[in-house]
Amino acid sequence: MSTPVYITSAAAWIPPAESAKEAVADGRYAAEDFEENKMVCLPVVADETSVPDMAAFAGRRALDRAAHVVGGRLDALVHASVYHQGRDYCWTSAPYIQRELAVTGAFAVNVQQLSNGGMVAMDLAVSQLQSGRASSAMVTTADRFCLPGMDRWRGAYGIVLGDGATAMVLSTAGGFARVHAIASYTDASLEPLHRGSHPFTTSPQPKVDDLREPKKSYLARVGKESVLQRCEVALQELVRSVLQQSGHTLDDFAKILMPNMGHGLMDVQFLKPLGISADRSLMDWGRYTGHLGAGDLTAGVARLVEKKLVREGDLVLLASAGGGYSLTAAVLEIESVPHWPEATTDFPLPADVTE
């Protein structure tokens, strides 16, 4: 990159978790999915905390960690989410988060690219910084998945949905990780995976959102192998592009961060296509968080630093995918490992779960 861009800080806000075994025992989680996904618990917001406030909580933590570089100034705030943000329509949550953080001089915008939203937001923030239109930017994500709209345990294939929020501050003035390359790509031929076969509606429908139905109908129409092949090619080509930009190979990376999915889905969607093993990922930690909506990779970056899982000079690859079918990949180099006393990616576990 011609203009150096850095990750200055990252943080999360994650509530206490509920046991997957208990969810199986009381019929909320299918036993076969429990065995396949290998998830042990999910963070769940148990009170009336709003989703935008969750994002603001994470944002404050990230802003405090970046204060030595950016002070209280942000030029841009990009918020990404998957699910309901507290209002049905005619409202955007990013300006609310901006106001709660008291950074009213920033341009605030929402991104809705589903599971890839956090990485798309990061790509947009990097573009603002590279263009000179901003010198500091924040990416936030937040989601809360609950009935009657969303069944966190049974709503999706190979994924269980955890509540949480994340935030990342990026700057041209310095940080602990330099962004060497970032790129996004959309294979629109796979767009029906998240739309399904039902006609378009003219207003929101009062129903439980079944994330399995669109995939089931599309796979029945075109075949599973066709879908897997296109997903694989899209991921491989995008990763190849950022590796060429940065001058690296996959073997150079100490850590590779991907969305928090069930182990079976991770294997076919990321590990096998990239030819990598799980030991370079945070898959084991993802067994405790589940899929944090748009925030898996931002939370992962915070986790790497908080738990000292990287050291100076390490390379980290971020690879994400979401609805559309969109993908984003980024290459980071760790330039220092800051000491953050609070581990924002730790959260209370249920009684039957230990790390």
TrEMBL record:
SUPFAM superfamilies in alphabetical order: Thiolase-like (SSF53901)
This protein's UniProt keywords: Acyltransferase, Cytoplasm, Transferase
CDD domains per record: init_cond_enzymes
PANTHER family (UniProt xref): 3-OXOACYL-[ACYL-CARRIER-PROTEIN] SYNTHASE 3, BETA-KETOACYL-[ACYL-CARRIER-PROTEIN] SYNTHASE III
Organism: Streptomyces filipinensis
Domain Beta-ketoacyl-[acyl-carrier-protein] synthase III C-terminal intervals: 243-334
Entry's Gene Ontology molecular function annotations: 3-oxoacyl-[acyl-carrier-protein] synthase activity
Domain Beta-ketoacyl-[acyl-carrier-protein] synthase III N-terminal, first and last residues per copy: 111-175
Name assigned to this protein: 3-oxoacyl-ACP synthase
GO biological process: fatty acid biosynthetic process; secondary metabolite biosynthetic process
